[in-house]
From TrEMBL:
Highest taxon above the source species: Bacteria
Single GO molecular function: alkanesulfonate monooxygenase activity
GO BP annotations listed: alkanesulfonate catabolic process
Keyword Flavoprotein: yes
Organism expressing this protein natively: Amycolatopsis carbonis
Name under which the protein is recorded: LLM class flavin-dependent oxidoreductase
UniProt keywords, alphabetically: Flavoprotein, FMN, Monooxygenase, Oxidoreductase
Record-annotated Luciferase-like domain positions: 17-316
Keyword Electron transport: no
Length: 351
């Protein structure tokens, strides 16, 4: 679950992300046995000042509030590592861990949006150097999380003296997610995370299977560990495939937020202006649809079948996003989850 809409559109069904909606969604997802509730992280908006993409709550305070109103769902705080000190994060995440009874997790982002670095007065490093910083950040965080007494730590980026974090958390380590897609990003995910997100270049299940195998093999060979591979997927579920495709076209093409997406692409893709027009149009469509996520568009039967194919391809989990989260979650619960349970892809919520 993503706790803020990820579609760039002016369609009236777009999720507002206000607390009343978020709290209802969290409680319902918890009742349904959804495994995780994942926050978005944004410190500066795309598309100019006061653009809706900036209306995202600070993710550790958000996670503590979600923890207090749920019972079993994992609560994942997304944040930019380059902008938030590991000493603060260790304490903030331990706080969520204690409130939730050990359900806290983190989605690690190295940071890539220049206006956010400018907001914090931090110089944005080159791509690979940001991951080098993130490696040293993790060294500091892991020590802060696990140490019961003060310690000194000096590396390329940190000089901690008599460092310690209290109160002590419940988990030996929070579950960590990462969506690094470059070779250096994949290496970081393989080394530090339990869950790696991948975005296949081709939605064909065989292409997905090959990409998943690459991620797993890297973690095994380089770090001797097993990791889970997830996809972020946007869901458009209607009674028929044609109705779903028509609704998707309406919010993506007819009412899509071209200005916001153009700003996002320009900031995220260094060579965007030199791309062929057809490639730029394809990328714009994907971001408007669901921030570049995998498409699950069709009837309940279509979506359940596609989820089965992704599972067969080795995908362990899906972070689902909708234009209208509450209605989308209810339709999933009523028509898709029973199919997944019948196919043995997930256990009933009562289990």
């Amino acid at each position: 679950m993503n706790a803020k809409g990820a579609s760039f559109t002016h369609h009236p069904d777009r999720f507002s992300g206000d607390w009343d909606e978020i709290s209802r969604l969290a409680k319902r997802a918890d009742e349904l046995g959804i495994e995780g509730f994942v926050s978005a992280s944004r410190w500066r908006a795309f598309g100019g000042d006061n653009h809706y993409s900036g209306d995202v709550m600070e993710t550790f305070a958000w996670a503590g509030a979600i923890a207090a109103i749920t019972e079993r769902i994992s609560i994942i705080s997304t944040f930019p590592m380059a902008l938030i000190n590991p000493a603060f994060v260790a304490k903030a995440e331990a706080t969520v861990d204690l409130i939730s009874g050990g359900r806290a997790g983190m989605n690690l982002v190295c940071g890539w949006f220049p206006p956010e670095f400018e907001l914090f007065g931090v110089e944005m490093q080159e791509h690979n150097d940001r991951y080098g910083y993130a490696d040293k950040w993790m060294e500091a965080f892991d020590k802060l999380w696990s140490s019961d007494e003060g310690f000194d730590l000096k590396n390329e980026y940190f000089d901690l003296k008599n460092a310690m974090s209290q109160p002590r958390p419940l988990q030996s380590r929070p579950v960590l997610l990462n969506a690094g897609g470059s070779p250096r990003g994949r290496q970081f995910a393989a080394e530090h995370a339990e869950v790696a997100f991948t975005i296949p270049d081709d939605p064909d299940p065989q292409a997905v299977k090959a990409r998943v195998a690459e991620y797993r093999e890297e973690a095994r060979k380089k770090f001797g560990k097993e990791i889970q591979i997830w996809l972020s997927a946007y869901v458009v579920q209607k009674d028929t495939t044609a109705a779903a495709e028509a609704y998707a076209h309406d919010y993506i093409v007819t009412r899509g937020d071209d200005v916001g997406v153009a700003d996002l692409i320009e900031a995220n893709i260094p060579n965007a202006k030199t791309m062929p027009p057809e490639k730029m149009a394809e990328m714009s469509y994907e971001f408007k649809a669901g921030y570049g996520a995998y498409p699950l568009v069709g009837s309940a039967s279509d979506i359940a079948q596609r989820m089965q194919e992704l599972s067969d391809a080795g995908v362990d989990g899906l972070m689902l996003i909708w234009l209208d989260y509450e209605n989308g979650l209810e339709k999933l619960a009523g028509e898709v989850l029973p199919r997944l349970e019948e196919a043995g892809l997930r256990a009933p919520a009562t289990a």
